[in-house]
């Protein structure tokens, strides 16, 4: 693994760990992650072609789940190569119905890497009639909590893994959560073994020259959504 690849996975894997914990998913490696056993539970990764999404898909498969995902059709090859059982066009008017049909109404877990109104609507509509759990990487619309009483929603803030107050305004402020730090320590050890066995691929990288000063100049690329299916990495030293 290169320095650039290593730099791209740290917070991503920590975020995936918090998603696993929020949804109550098992954190033991499956003895047969690549088997075709159709009894494995489905987990929806909304935004599977994001940097967190491709890591989540791989970790779900390694831990014995059937990851399904939404993204742009041009990224279907990427997410399927990373292990998605099925991929759905997120802009399709029948996206949530298509997911329900594919999972036969059994979907009980949704990871939302986008967390806008459309994303939450699709996730809630895709979860089966028995309900389940939904976890987002950002604050979801407040009205979501009353949409379906049999779905337990949550959103996570990855900065809580440091065990200190998150000094941000409004609902983004979090008091220190020592339990998140303890979880992160154990999860990091777990991920270290996975990486050592080379069982995980990083997100496709776009390495940019210019170090930290280049980042500000590249912000328009993100705002205009020109970066899709790739993660920008900026080397800052001679290493």
From TrEMBL:
InterPro entries documented for this protein: NAD(P)-bd_dom_sf (IPR036291), Trans-enoyl_RdTase-like (IPR047122)
UniProt keyword annotation of Nucleotide-binding present: yes
Protein name listed in UniProt: NAD(P)-binding protein
Record's keyword terms, sorted: NADP, Nucleotide-binding, Oxidoreductase
GO molecular function: nucleotide binding; oxidoreductase activity, acting on NAD(P)H
UniProt source species: Aspergillus eucalypticola (strain CBS 122712 / IBT 29274)
Entries under PANTHER family matching the protein: HYPOTHETICAL OXIDOREDUCTASE (EUROFUNG) (PTHR45348), TRANS-ENOYL REDUCTASE APDC (PTHR45348:SF6)
Record flagged with keyword Oxidoreductase: yes
CDD domains found in the cross-reference section: enoyl_reductase_like (cd08249)
């Amino acid at each position: 693994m290169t320095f650039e690849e290593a730099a791209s996975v740290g917070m991503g894997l920590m975020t995936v760990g918090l998603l696993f914990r929020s949804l109550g998913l098992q954190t033991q490696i499956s003895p047969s992650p690549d088997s075709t056993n159709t009894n494995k539970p489905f987990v929806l990764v909304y935004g599977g072609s994001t940097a967190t999404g491709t890591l989540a898909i791989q970790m779900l498969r390694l831990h014995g789940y059937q990851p399904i995902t939404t993204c742009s059709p041009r990224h279907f090859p990427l997410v399927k190569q990373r292990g998605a059982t099925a991929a759905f066009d997120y802009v399709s008017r029948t996206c949530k119905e298509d997911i329900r049909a594919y999972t036969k109404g059994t979907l009980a877990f949704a990871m939302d890497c986008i967390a806008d109104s459309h994303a939450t609507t699709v996730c809630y509509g895709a979860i089966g009639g028995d309900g389940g759990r939904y976890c987002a990487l950002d604050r979801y619309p407040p009205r979501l909590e009353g949409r379906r009483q049999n779905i337990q929603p949550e959103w996570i803030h990855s900065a809580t893994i440091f065990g200190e107050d998150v000094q941000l305004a409004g609902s983004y402020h979090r008091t220190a959560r020592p339990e998140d730090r303890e979880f992160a320590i154990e999860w990091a050890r777990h991920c270290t073994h996975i990486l050592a066995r080379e069982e995980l691929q990083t997100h496709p990288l776009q390495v940019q020259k210019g170090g930290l000063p280049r980042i500000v100049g590249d912000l328009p690329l993100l705002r205009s959504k020109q970066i899709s299916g790739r993660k920008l990495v900026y080397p800052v030293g001679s290493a």
